[in-house]
Amino acid sequence: MQQPHLPTNEAIAVVHTARSLTEAMVVRGLLEGAGIASPELGGGSPSPWPGTVSILHPARGVEIPIYAIESQAARARELIAEYLDEVERGNDPGEDS
User: What pLDDT score was predicted for residue 15?
Assistant: First the structure.
């Protein structure tokens, strides 16, 4: 994903914690598709695939923080909550009705 220009003086906030690499990619794509900057900070993992740790150590689980700049954090959380609510109800938010 192409990173949008981020203001260098604005704080970032964790807006969601993904439980898999796939979830992280979907949520970041959702945010970026809505014009919300979601910087990829790496989380300190030496692996480019942080979700693979759950295969090696399933008891440890996976937590991948998803970030947004502070001025867009509230909207990002709203979008994520709406998306997860649709998924939980069994609807695919990406499908046209």
Answer: 96
Cβ-based neighbour number of residue 37 at 10 Å: 19
**17 within 8 A of 23, measured Cβ to Cβ:** no
Give 77's contacts (C-beta < 8 A, 6+ positions apart).
15, 16
Q: Tell whether pTM > 0.85.
A: no
| Rounded Cα gap, residues 50 and 78, in angstroms | 25
Query: What is residue 62's predicted lDDT score, i.e. its pLDDT?
Result: 74
pLDDT (mean) for 77-89: 92
Under 8 Å between Cβ of 43 and 12:
no
Task: Calculate the alpha carbon distances from 32 to 40, 65, 79 in Å.
Answer: 11, 15, 11
Q: Rounded distance, CA 51 to CA 83, Å?
A: 21
